[in-house]
Specification:
The protein is of the alpha/beta class. It has helices at 2-13, 83-89, 106-109, 123-141, 158-169, 188-197, 217-231, 252-266; strands at residues 27-34, 39-46, 61-65, 95-99, 151-156, 176-180, 204-210, 240-245.
């Protein structure tokens, strides 16, 4: 946990700006007001290669956290996820909406409940921004499939935590979740209590973590949460998948290498 927490705090402030942008031509940005958070948010948009040609086609959407790390090595902390290159390589038919984290507000935005030692706990407002402000704008501006089965929430570390929480809070909005190295430790009791009281959990979930993330709690928590999910529905429905990568560490390399398989399984 100490390693992960150190990573989280460093992640708030450090970016690599020494190189040229690596974002593809399919990636653009815009800024939108986020009244729920009393700020504005820079949003990154990836459109599939055929978007401009197929003018009537609609696409599923993935909402992802920490947009600075998704598409561009110039803005990333210690390397990007290569989301655009990966999706281009398989001609993926999906729109990705990346939400920049709030810098020193990142921990607050991505944590559902206040931690007695570290604070946080503003994820309700963050998710309300996505659901009530950002998603309506995206659905109005781009050709999207708006139903839950075509809307995913995806993130790593605290982003994995808030993505899973988003599935519990807004199951009618997010039908698919990419839950990478989720920091369940931050709100362990509250999250497991919430899952315990959840009924008829229908969301499709892809769990991933490494077995060398600096704390044994990561694998233990992931296994326990998967068990809780399985108690809410028949395993025969194949609505969740769990991958534990041998030697995998808490970093972009693990998440970058796991993204393609997660996307293909979820969609």
């Amino acid at each position: 946990m100490k390693f992960i927490l150190s990573f989280l705090f460093t992640f708030l402030f450090c970016y690599s700006n020494a190189q040229e942008s690596t974002a593809s031509k399919q990636v653009t940005t815009f800024t939108i007001e986020a009244p729920q958070l009393k700020t504005s948010k820079k949003i990154w948009v990836y459109l599939p290669k055929d978007y401009s040609r197929n003018t009537k086609k609609k696409y599923p959407v993935i909402y992802m956290h920490d947009a600075q790390n998704l598409f561009d090595a110039k803005t990333s902390y210690v390397g990007e996820w290569n989301i655009d290159e990966t999706l281009d390589s398989i001609n993926a038919q999906v729109i990705v909406i990346g939400i920049e984290h709030g810098g020193d507000k990142r921990m607050e935005e991505l944590t559902p409940f206040k931690n007695a030692k570290y604070g946080g706990g503003n994820a309700d407002n963050y998710l309300d921004f996505i659901v009530k402000t950002l998603k309506p704008y995206v659905d109005k501006t781009y050709r999207t499939k708006i139903n839950a089965s075509n809307t995913a929430l995806f993130g790593s570390s605290l982003g994995g935590l808030v993505s899973f929480y988003g599935a519990l809070k807004y199951p009618e909005v997010f039908g698919k979740i990419g839950c990478f190295s989720p920091s369940f430790w931050f709100n362990r009791k509250e999250m497991f209590d919430l899952m315990e009281t959840t009924k008829n959990f229908k969301t499709k979930v892809y769990f991933l973590c490494g077995d060398n993330e600096g704390d044994d709690d990561m694998v233990r928590d992931l296994n326990n949460m998967e068990y809780q999910v399985n108690t809410k529905r028949c395993e025969c429905k194949k609505l969740n998948k769990k991958i534990i990568v041998k030697g995998g560490q808490h970093n972009e390399k693990l998440w970058r290498e796991g993204f393609k398989k997660a996307y293909l399984w979820l969609f």
